[in-house]
Amino acid sequence: MTQQIFDDYLKALYLKSKNDLRSGYSEKLIAKLIGLSRTDAQNVLHYLAAKYIDTKNGFGNNISLTNEGIDYVLKLHKAKKLKTIKFKKADYLPPASRLVFGFLYWYDLVNEDGTVQFKTIAAFASDVLTMIWGLTWDGKGPLDAEKILLQFAKDKIIEKVKEETLNDQEELTLMTSTQPAKCPYNAENLIETKYAEFEIEFEVETKSLTEEIMDGKLAISIIETRDEINAVFREKFGDNLLLLNQERNIVDFFKTATSFEEFAVRTSSLAEISRNLNVSFLRKTTNDKSEPAKLSVELLEMFANQKMLSTEIIEVLRNFGRIRQGYPNHMDNPRVIKSLQYFNISYPVRDFEGSWTTLLTYYLNALKTFFNDLLGIS
User: Fold this and answer.
1) Mean pLDDT by 10 residues, the chain (378 residues)
2) Cα 193 off chain centre by
3) Could you tell me if 65 and 27 are in contact, meaning their C-beta atoms sit under 8 angstroms apart?
4) Is 37 left (phi over 0), alpha (psi -120 to 50) or beta?
5) In this structure, what are the phi and psi dihedrals at residue 124, rounded to the nearest 5 degrees?
C-alpha cells in the first residue's frame, strides 16, 4: 500500500461524511470510491483504524474520522482549492448510427462557495473494445459497463476542469487503438453512479493553463479532436489521417490575432496544418491513378464520397486554402472574398481577433462532424 492510497481513503471518507462527521459513512462504499478490492480495503482500514478512523462509533455499520483524522485531512487540503464532482444518474445510450454504445452521465460540479453547475458527459466504447472488454449491456443487465465507463468520464472531467476547458456537455469515445487489451478496472471494486462523488484539488499558486496560453480552450478542443480522429482512423484503417510536419504550427492555435500581419500568419498556418493529410494512404485506399496526381483535399473528398461521409470538412479546407492565397501571399481576388463570406467574415477584414476565432471554430465543428461520421464506418 502507498501513502497516496491511505490519503485518498481518508479524503473520500471526509468528503462523504463532512455534513455529518459523527455518523460517518459506509466503509464498503468508501473502498469502491477509490477502486479498492475487498482485501486491499480491509488492509487500509486496519492500518488507519484507531488513529485516523473510528470503526465503532459511526451510525450503524458506518466508519467515521477521529479528530486526528479530520485534522489530517484538513492539513492535506491546506493551501488548495477544491471542486467536487457529484454524479446523479446515468442514461444508457444504445448503438445507433455509430458503432458505439455508452452512457450519458448527469453530474453537479460544486465549487467551494457552494455554487453548483449542472453538466453532462457521454462516455462511449467502440464495438470492438466493447467485445474485448466484455462491456455488453442491454439497458437491463448488470452495472459493470456503467461503472467502468464512469471512471473514464470522471478522469476526463478532472482533466478538463484543471485545464479550464470543461463544457456543459462533454463526450469521449474509447477505442482499441488508445486503450489496453485488458480493461484496467474491475467492476466489482467500483462505485455505482448514484453514490459517485469525487474531489478535484488545485494548487492555489498554480496558474491555470488558460492563463498561460491565453484563450486555449478552442485550441485544446481542436487538438483533442484531431487526436480522436487519428485514433479512430488507426483502428479502422491502420494509419493516421491527419499529419503534422511542423510542431510550431500547433502553437498558432493558442495565439490571438491583433493585426493584419498576425491574422495573415495565423491563417497561413491553419491552412498548412489542416490540409496536411496522409496523401499516400488516401491515394492507395481510393485507388486514385489520375494524372496529374490529385492533391490532399481532392483525395479526402474522394474518400468521403466513397464512404458516404459528410463533405463539410472538404469545403472548410478548400476555403482555408483560398484565404491563404490572399495578400500578402498573393493579390486579393474574388475567390478570397467569397471564401471569407463562407465563414461569415466581412471583407476587408477589420476584426482580426474575432475573425481568427471564427476560422478556428469552423475547423473544430468540421472536425467533430467528420469524427462522428468515421465512427459509423463498419
Assistant:
1) 92 95 95 95 93 91 95 91 96 77 95 94 91 74 83 94 88 89 93 96 57 63 92 93 78 82 88 93 91 88 92 94 69 79 90 91 94 87
2) 19
3) no
4) beta
5) -120, 155
292-320 burial, b at 16+ Cβ within 10 Å, e below that, comes to eebebbbbbbbbbeeeebebbbbbbbbbb
pTM, two decimals, is 0.72
H or E segment and range at residue 300: helix 296-306
Please list, in sequence order, all residues whose beta carbon lies within 8 angstroms of the beta carbon of residue 32, skipping any fewer than 6 positions away. Answer: 189, 190, 191, 192, 195
| Residue 294 and residue 280 in contact, taking contact as beta carbons nearer than 8 Å | no
Residue among 82, 172, 157 nearest 119 (CA):
157
Strand partners, 110: 84, 116
In terms of Cα–Cα distance, which of 338, 311, 313 is closest to 326?
Answer: 338
DSSP string computed for 53-81: EESSSSSTT-BEE-HHHHHHHHHHHTTEE
The answer to whether 94 and 135 are in contact (CB under 8 A) is no
**Residue 72 to residue 113: CA distance in whole angstroms:** 22
Residue 63 C-alpha cell reads as 466508519
Question: C-alpha grid cell for residue 336?
Answer: 478570397
C-alpha grid cell, residue 32: 469502491
Beta bridge partners, 92, equal 103
| Residue 14 φ/ψ region, left for φ over 0, alpha for ψ in the -120 to 50 degree band, beta for the rest | alpha
Which helix (H) or strand (E) covers residue 198, if one does?
strand 197-203
Instruction: Decide: helix, strand or coil at residue 346.
Output: coil
Contacts of 215-220 spanning 24+ positions with Cβ under 8 A? 215/254, 215/256, 216/163, 216/165, 216/253, 216/254, 217/163, 217/164, 217/165, 218/253, 218/357, 218/360, 218/361, 218/364, 219/250, 219/253, 219/254, 219/360, 220/163, 220/165
Reported as type and span, the H/E element at residue 16 is: helix 3-17
The full DSSP string for 114-140 is S-EEEEEEEEEEEHHHHHHHT----SS
- Please give the C-alpha separations between residue 359 and each of 123, 274, 314, 352, 353, in angstroms, as whole numbers: 28, 11, 14, 11, 10
Closest Cα to residue 30, out of 11, 56, 3, 47?
Answer: 11
